[in-house]
Specification:
The complex is a heterodimer of chains A (344) and B (552). Chain A starts with a strand and ends with a strand. In chain A, helix 3 packs across helix 4. Chain A contains eight helices and 21 strands. With 344 residues, chain A is α+β, with helices and mostly antiparallel strands. In chain A, 23% of the residues lie in helices and 37% in strands. With 552 residues, chain B is an all-alpha fold. Chain B has a two-stranded parallel sheet. The longest helix of chain B has 42 residues. Classes of the chains: A alpha+beta (344), B mainly alpha (552). The interface between A and B is large, with 45 and 27 residues.
């Protein structure tokens, strides 16, 4: 009964601007895919085309065996059975929580719909707020109602557009856990648009990075974090410092902070080396010598900035560093967190 | 999520059911909006054109030679007086009610807007009786002192300043409301900052709160002055020659609407200037208020004689604007209960005319409000045309219609006059309906429509289950406002009503003009009671704290 979503060659233009450009994307059932990227990358437009809220200029959307968009077919959203969750919750202000949930169950007899709606409210932890109206609910509670409302009619897939961005950080984790638990249980394809890469890594089985209308890389959080395909993909999942590198005689890329292995089949001489902050060791060994520019405690880690000549990099260290600002320290690069790309 | 926001292509944009259905109708070249703009603009433009091209001649020369200077100075003195009186009452009252706590503050905060219910001419009738030579106050003075009427001085209500006194009483709530909203929304943080910097209360008011609220105050004052300039009933009754009275007389005394239209050009220029000021200032006020977070004001408790002073000040304003004239009307109506002719017929006429005017204005306002969501150029034009009609006195709008009807072979009786009158109502009041309607439509953001669709609701279900229940309360409020505004309208109704179609306003005017004030009291009272309905609605919204309509 669970079905996959398959997107092929999907495109959308507004005037001269191509907002979504020939996107292929599979959303298998039982997996959560996160779509991340900067504002204006086309994430929401892609989501809206899958939902049927926008008509693609080209390409197809397949839901299970059936075509829902493309080739002259355009199934309206009300017949797609795809659940939607919005950043602004979009609860109907004139209906109570339980009536909101029951909205999509109008084909059922009232007692039956009422029972299902009450059950869904209980599953998201709102059994006691069933008769409250949206303006009487907190943001977190409103989003829980929205989740129950989207899942109650047993949709074939669920799409979420920045669902947790409107919530304050304390509530956010709770609502997110409740939502993802409920969604995993029903084993449907789930797509979540977010600009928060940590959130994406936390909840998604797969992450797709979108830039300028294209998906530039897709994979598991681990793959994307440790093997980004481009500088943009590297910085999309977490902070990186960029330094210049040059091919040395031993076939390695030499930077001011140390040497790393050169990638295969790359015929460039100059490189851009991106370094994750946790991939730098501050030690006393005979490594590169750098000047300590600043150090700060950020909870359980220290954020340290070190500089060699004109280049500086950001370092996260779990160990305190005894040197004071202005002194020299040794730095050593950890190959696993350094990514080499041709210089642009 | 931002990609689709800034584009012109709204073909695929989600629209709510009702707007969407109407949008379908509208779409053929925005023809419907264009037609609505034409209808709303027609009275104003025809009056202006007639004034320019047909307004000359003997009557005009006569007016220029004999009356023009009197009309102009009359209008200017009345408007200045109104502005002055409003500023020294409404602004301090708004400030006191916003930042201080004293006995009765809660009640005053909404009691002070009640004068919005009464049109200026009703207040004029009541005050002319209250303060007249045979009125209760002067009689009491004579009884107490034994003096005769000629032996003492008493301010003359039938004068330019008397007219200003009456109109200011009716119109100060415009400034009170805008000033209060400005003080509430923008001054809390800045006031606390000023306090931390050591500024004394008086300095905080004059140097921080007042300059910050100035755009809102000026916008409210411009609105009040538009209404004051539009007044015919009060000025005419109090024997004050203003431009609006002159425009009306050109038709009633000289039977030369074209000359009236030429005189009206001055009024149109004045009204459009006020409108321009209001729009500009309101824009300023808007940008200031939106950047500041809303916070609950910690009201300072006034003690001792200061608190007494606040109560006395607010009470005086309330008595001046509402209590005294209202109570006097009730008194008069009771005294004259046996001699007042039955009011059923004029009441039904009023309901019929106001209903027709409100229904037509509602439809046009709805078209404009839906059109405004597309942010197209047509919608901008619509907004300005509606605002222009709203700013223009009813007597001026009616002139074009009177002129046109005179050219036709039939007289002012019948369907033609009625149609023209409804058209004038539409032109004058559409703008009063677009605001609430736009707010109502704004309550249903696009994501609600998308949510309803994703839950399987068909277009008809979306209209029925989502759009209508959400929009209806706001739409009902808009309808009520339009109905009451039309009911209160006097000069255009006088000029264009079909023969024998007396409304409450016309009856009150006719009795008052015959100096039968006690007979005019009952129809006046009914008008005020109708007027109270939307005012109570407004004050209820204010007291539930949704004054600004909730910035999203």
């Amino acid at each position: 009964m669970s079905q996959d979503i398959r997107v092929q060659g999907l495109s959308r233009r507004y005037g001269n601007e191509t907002v979504v450009d020939m996107v292929d994307l599979d959303l298998p059932h039982g997996t959560t895919t996160a779509l991340i990227g900067a504002s204006g990358a086309g994430k929401s437009t892609l989501l809206r085309m899958i939902a049927g809220l926008e008509t693609p200029d080209a390409g197809t959307v397949q839901l299970g065996p059936g075509l829902v968009s493309g080739d002259g077919i355009m199934v309206p959203p009300e017949r797609r059975r795809i659940g939607l969750i919005f950043q602004d919750f979009a609860l109907f202000p004139h209906l109570s929580a339980v009536e909101n949930v029951r909205f999509g169950l109008s084909h059922l007899a009232k007692p039956e719909g009422q029972a299902i709606a009450a059950d869904w409210l209980a599953r998201v932890g709102l059994a006691d707020r069933a008769y409250a109206f949206p303006h009487q609910l907190s943001g977190g509670e409103q989003q829980r109602v929205a989740i129950a409302r989207a899942l109650a009619p047993e949709p074939l897939a669920i799409l979420m557009d920045e669902p947790f961005s409107g919530l304050d950080p304390m509530l956010r984790a709770d609502v997110r856990d409740a939502a993802m638990t409920a969604i995993r249980e029903v084993e449907i394809p789930a797509l979540i648009v977010t600009h928060d890469s940590e959130e994406a890594m936390l909840i998604a089985d797969r992450i797709a990075i979108m830039h300028a209308g294209k998906i530039i890389q897709i994979g598991t959080p681990e793959e994307l974090y440790s093997a980004p395909a481009s500088p943009r993909a590297a910085s999309a999942l977490g902070p990186v410092s960029s330094v210049k590198g040059r091919l040395n005689g031993r076939g390695m890329v030499e930077t001011a902070f140390g040497a790393v292995n050169a990638p295969k089949d790359m015929d460039s001489n100059t490189f851009q080396v991106l370094i994750r902050p946790e991939a730098v060791d501050i030690s006393d060994g005979n490594a590169a010598r750098a000047v300590l520019i600043s150090k700060r405690r950020l909870g359980y880690i220290f954020q340290i900035i070190v500089q060699i000549e004109t280049e500086s990099i950001s370092v996260w260290s779990q160990k305190p560093v005894s040197a004071v600002v202005g002194e020299t320290v040794s730095v050593r690069l950890d190959e696993a967190g350094c990514f080499v790309f041709p210089y642009e | 999520m931002t990609a689709q926001a800034g584009t012109d292509n709204f073909e695929e944009k989600p629209f709510q059911g009702v707007p969407r259905l109407l949008k379908e109708i509208v779409r053929p070249g925005n023809a419907l909006i264009a037609l609505a703009i034409f209808l709303v603009g027609l009275p104003l433009f025809s009056t202006v054109l007639i004034g320019i091209f047909a307004g000359g001649g003997e009557t005009w020369n006569h007016i220029i030679d004999t009356f023009f200077w009197t009309y102009l100075t009359g209008s200017l003195v009345v408007l200045s007086g109104v502005a002055l009186l409003i500023l020294i009452t409404a602004v301090p009252a708004a400030w006191i009610v916003t930042v201080y706590d004293f006995p009765g503050r809660q009640a005053f905060s909404w009691l002070l807007i009640l004068p919005l219910a009464a049109p200026g001419y009703v207040l004029a009738y009541s005050y002319a009786d209250l303060l007249g030579v045979v009125g209760p106050i002067q009689t009491a003075i004579r009884d107490a002192t034994g003096l005769a009427a000629r032996d003492y001085w008493f301010p003359d209500i039938r004068s330019r300043w008397g007219c200003a006194f009456v109109l200011a009483a009716a119109l100060y709530p415009y400034v009170y409301l805008t000033a209060r909203a400005a003080f509430t929304s923008q001054s809390v943080c800045t006031l606390e900052a000023a306090q931390a910097l050591g500024a004394a209360p008086w300095r905080r008011f004059t140097q921080v709160a007042l300059p910050g609220a100035r755009p809102a105050i000026v916008a409210g004052l411009a609105l009040a002055l538009m209404e004051a300039a539009a007044d015919y009933g009060a000025a005419d009754f109090l024997g004050v020659q203003t431009l609006t009275v002159g425009v009306f007389r050109a038709w009633s005394s000289f039977s030369d609407p074209a000359a009236g239209a030429r005189l009206a050009l001055v009024l149109v220029a004045l009204a459009l200037t006020l409108l321009w000021i209001e729009r500009r200032r309101r824009g300023d006020a808007g940008t200031q208020a939106s950047s500041i977070r809303w916070r609950t004001i910690q009201r300072k408790k006034l003690g001792g004689w200061l608190s007494l002073l606040a109560v006395v000040f607010c009470s005086l304003i309330f008595i001046w604007g509402f209590a005294a004239p209202f109570v006097r009307l009730i008194w008069l109506a009771i005294e004259a209960r046996s001699s007042t002719p039955p009011l059923i017929k004029p009441l039904l006429n009023s309901i019929f005319l106001a209903g027709a005017g409100a229904a037509a204005a509602f439809i046009i306002a709805l078209i404009f409000a839906i059109g405004a969501r597309s942010k197209s150029r047509v919608a901008q034009v619509a907004k300005w045309i509606a605002a222009g009609g709203y700013a223009t006195p009813g007597a001026v709008l009616a002139l074009g219609g009177v002129y046109a009807l005179n050219l036709l072979p039939f007289t002012l009786t019948g369907l033609a006059a009625l149609t023209v009158l409804v058209l004038v109502y539409v032109s004058r009041f559409t703008a009063a309906g677009t605001g609430p309607l736009e707010a109502a439509l704004g309550r249903a953001p696009a994501s609600l429509n998308a949510a309803a669709r994703s839950l399987g609701a068909t277009p008809i279900q979306r209209v029925w289950r989502v759009d209508l229940p959400i929009i209806l309360p706001g739409a009902a409020a808009a309808g009520l406002i339009l109905f009451v505004e039309t009911l209160k309208e006097l000069p255009a109704t006088l000029m264009l009503r079909p023969f024998n179609l007396d409304t409450l306003a016309v009856r009150a005017y006719a009795y008052a003009s015959d100096e039968r004030l006690e007979t005019a009291a009952l129809p006046s009272l009914v008008i005020v009671l109708c007027g109270l309905l939307p005012v109570i609605l407004l004050s209820w919204r204010l007291s539930t704290g949704r004054a600004g309509g909730g910035v999203e």
